[in-house]
Amino acid sequence: MNFALHRRATVLLAVLAAALVALPWVADNYLISVATLILFLAYTGQAWNVMMGFAGQLSLGHSLYVGVGAYVAGGLFFHFGLGPWAGLWIAILVCMLLGAAIGFLAFRFGISGVYFALLTIAFAEFTRIGFDHIPWTGGPGGLFLKVAQRDQVDLLHFRGPPAMYYYSMLVLAAGALALCAAMLRSRAGYYWQAIREDEEAAQALGINTFRWKMLAVIVSSAMTAVSGVFFAFYYNNLFPEQIFHISRSIEIILGPIIGGVGTLFGPILGAALLTVLSDGITELLAAFGWEIPGIKQVFYGVVLLGVVMFLPNGIWPPIARRLGIGR
Alpha-carbon distance 153 to 160, whole Å? Predict the structure, then answer.
């Protein structure tokens, strides 16, 4: 990257960061909640992007790690009073072990491509059904955290006004962006991209594809577990049908696919476009008194179809070229 290119990218990133930091000062609670959702989807999309966009391993069951992370931290808090910060590390560890188990089963026995995707769906569905029958997690009746929302910031118990959750998610999203940028430029990033482009060629070059694919799965599952903990203490209630459903996984992966798989800013742009436009359509229909079940899913399908047909690499790459900056 030459100096002018680097300077332009830095200026644009600084302007975006300043706008995001200032948002709660000029927006109401509804807009802050929408922005928080965008950042949540951008973060989880970035986590999924590590597995698929960087290493080429398609997961369609990423809601598994969101749900397990949420239930582990939420359950420990509900039953034992263990704070969210301690529960966070346990949730990350559990999801890493779960991701490692799935990756080992898949990669050791040569399961790849669409079959790996089906395996991830199966694990998410098995877990959803299992949690529906586990009394410790509340079963289908749900798990409700005991501490009510507060007006003052309480970081120890992760409670506070909407702006606190917004800034927390902003820090997570920025951290994920920086981490992914660093990983792409590391040895792991180069190996992952080699595996994504041609696994057999990567093996011929001496790359231990099993080891590096396992690392991608473990890193992705650990990052996603963090979003699950945030989900638990942001919404304060958990239902297996809500958090493990395949629609949750689809929601996670749509941002990177529409924004640009394998890019750094694609998941952010995709999450913003999908959330703003889908909420806008919902509000517009509500203004006319219309309620159309499934309209959001239809909208997602139309947008995805349009991107696949006209921008197969996603929306961000042509924008990046037009702005003259990197990915």
Answer: 4
| CA dist., res. 268 & res. 266, Å (int) | 5
Q: At what angle do helices 246-259 and 266-287 cross, to 10 degrees?
A: 120
Structural tokens at position 281: 């359509």
Which CATH architecture fits 3-323? Orthogonal Bundle (1.10)
- pTM, two decimal places: 0.94
* pLDDT one-digit tens code per residue, 218-240: 999 999 999 999 999 999 999 99
150 contacts: CB under 8 Å, gap ≥ 6: 159, 160, 161
What CA–CA distance (Å, rounded) separates 324 from 7? 11
Residues 6+ apart with CB under 8 A from 143: 71, 74, 75, 78, 137, 237, 238, 239
Rounded Cα–Cα distance for residues 55 and 107 (Å): 13
